[in-house]
Design brief:
The protein is of the alpha/beta class and about 375 residues long. The protein has ten helices and 15 strands. The structure holds adenosine-5'-triphosphate (ATP). The site of adenosine-5'-triphosphate has 16 residues, from helix 1. It is found in: Cytoplasm.
């Protein structure tokens, strides 16, 4: 998959920007806070219509302006695509593929796959489960439209059920709809668990060998999917998982009413990462954490390639400056094939990478 070019209007600190990229290596350089990450974020946005660092789309719109526009010209599956996203402060976002309005972001699945590395990847190992779920969701949404649709529906149901649980004491009539929400959440939740389990099985195949090589053969990375306790086999069909989720919800009904929170469901899932049998979250050093996070990301890149037959676009945001020379060499040695974008502050560090096209960014403009 190749991003041939991108056009931005009022996206973050870009007033207007129009760039044509190399199908191989693109180096984006500039001083701090000039717009390097913003450019990578715009490219990544076209793959799932969401940002790795913004909670709401309106954060992506330039301060003081009401709407923003991102347009990408791509080559994917031997076809040309034009993807457009129109973001607005006051209305829902609009997405277009080759001029046709998409009903949901899930319809973007499979057009542009991206894998983004950024300094915050450390959180993938260190922080709570929410970061790891975000990683899983971003990967699977890009590969499976059905997953993206189920995730969007689950999130809506979750918000509505949360409101019921929050307000039921003041408005007891709200409880009349609780069973319906539980039913729909168990149905869509079963789809999420099924796809997550299959993705993690593949990640278990690809990430540990990368980690072993990365750590000079010293460390063993192990991954485990933690989901709702009553689910016997997360890889089973959604139909089989569904009654098991309902059972769990039923047994937590009173606890949910008391806590006024959704306590049961895959919104609490986690991906446990262990190094040599020890929890990486609790015990890994800074270097080990970095290595494990990179292994997960590189592992997901392999999954994309094996699933689609095309390398995803690789976005390396400020990662090289964070790595020691051995890890830098390892990453650079593992990104052959496919289009790559690297941001950096001092371009001399990246000399000799190959046939790169260099873009200099200053104050949201290409210079
Ligand atoms: N919605 C927005 N409207 C206008 N400017 C924004 C918006 N969001 C972020 N910015 C600004 O964009 C600038 C560039 O941010 P970006 O994260 O791309 O920097 P960078 O070049 O990657 O820097 P660094 O090397 O420090 O990571 C920041 O100064 C930030 O304040």
């Amino acid at each position: 998959m190749i991003v041939k070019g991108i056009e931005l209007d009022f996206f973050r600190n870009y007033l207007h920007m129009d760039a044509k990229f190399s199908p191989e290596l693109n180096v984006i350089c500039g001083e701090n806070a000039q717009g390097k990450t913003n450019l990578l974020e715009a490219v990544a946005y076209l793959s799932t219509a969401s940002s790795h660092r913004a909670r709401y789309d309106k954060e992506l719109i330039q301060f003081g302006v009401d709407s923003a526009f991102i347009k990408g010209e791509l080559l994917s599956r031997d076809r040309d695509f034009t993807l457009e996203a129109r973001l607005s402060r006051n209305a829902r976002k609009q997405l277009f593929s080759n001029g046709v309005r998409l009903k949901t972001a899930g319809e973007l699945a499979g057009v542009l796959n991206t894998v983004l590395f950024c300094p915050e990847d450390l959180y993938l190992i260190r922080e709570g489960a929410v970061e790891r779920r975000r990683f899983l969701d971003s990967c699977i949404c890009q590969l499976r439209p059905r997953y993206a649709a189920a995730l969007a529906e689950y999130r809506k149901l979750y918000d509505q059920k949360t409101r019921i649980l929050r307000d039921w004491e003041e408005k007891p009539s709200l409880l009349e709809t609780l069973d319906d929400f539980n039913l729909r959440m168990a149905q869509t939740g079963a789809v999420l668990i099924h796809y997550r389990a299959h993705f993690i099985r593949k990640l278990r195949e690809y990430a540990p060998p990368i980690h072993r090589e990365f750590s000079g053969g010293r460390e063993i990375l192990a991954l485990r999917y933690e989901t709702v306790k009553t689910v016997v086999d997360p890889e089973a069909s959604p139909k089989e998982i569904f009654p098991q989720l309902l059972d769990h919800q039923e047994s937590h009904r009173q606890a949910e009413l008391d806590a006024r929170q959704c306590l049961s469901g895959p919104h609490k899932d986690d991906l446990t990462v262990e190094l040599d049998g020890m929890s990486a979250k609790q015990f890994a050093s800074q270097g080990q954490t970095r290595t494990a996070a990179l292994s997960l990301k590189l592992g997901s890149r392999e999954i994309f390639f094996h699933d689609t037959g095309e390398w995803p676009v690789l976005l390396l945001d400020d990662v090289l400056s964070e790595l020691d020379a051995r890890r830098q060499a390892f990453v650079l040695g593992h990104i052959n094939g496919g289009q790559v974008f690297i941001t950096c502050c001092e371009d001399e560090k990246l000399e000799g990478l190959g046939r790169e096209k260099v873009f200099r960014i200053h104050a949201g403009r290409l210079v």
